[in-house]
TrEMBL record:
This is ubiquitinyl hydrolase 1. Transmembrane segments: none annotated. Its main location: nucleus. One of its GO terms (molecular function) is cysteine-type deubiquitinase activity. The keyword Nucleus applies. PROSITE patterns: USP_2, USP_3. The keyword RNA-binding does not apply. Keywords: Hydrolase, Nucleus, Protease, Thiol protease, Transcription, Transcription regulation, Ubl conjugation pathway. Its EC number is 3.4.19.12.
Amino acid sequence: MCTACGFTSTTYDPCVDISLDLEPNQGGSAKMASTKTHHSCNGEADCMNSSQNCGISTLMGCLNRFTRPERLGSDQKFFCQQCQVRQESLKQMSIRKLPLVSCFHIKRFEHSSIRKMSRKVDRYLQFPFSLDMAPYLSSSILRSRFGNRIFSFDGDEPDASNESSSEFELFAVVTHTGKLDAGHYVTYLRLSNQWYKCDDASITQVNESIVRAAQGYMMFYVQKMLYYKVSEKAVAS
């Protein structure tokens, strides 16, 4: 959006998953978080040595960060069709249409060309078992900015922005243990409200608390209506 005249240019980008940055470490919250959970740093000295691994991020916080407006600098001016000159602008990501299954990938591997180093970020991420995606929809973001004057997008299906389909249930979590150059993947899978740990050829039943404590690398959410329909069929069979 042009900051001078308000002209908006929209681009649609189909995707199979959404890659999310972890929230930046919040200063003094790291030490407090270490007393509440074993997933954060053990002690103030560790936090000083690895500040990016301290504290706790949340999936909702990552989604808020993903969809917040970003002011582009003067070196990234775009050509405004209305002003007919290059202008500074605001860029904002949003989700136009929700899929049946939403996949979120957490960026846990950082690469710095300046420092010429790469590393893994082991900070704990809290993720909900039930997730409402309505706040991150394009329709919701536009209405919060301009009110209910906004019409539906061209080509949208009648139920494309149906609020009842914005409710999702977690059904799979992929974790990664190890370092950047070597590690191991484990999947936690939910079936008929029971969680299973899939570790190579070994599949074992686990408690929900084990899943909540896992270091999420990828999370898969399915629309709530579809999840309960599948669960009912599984029980009936």
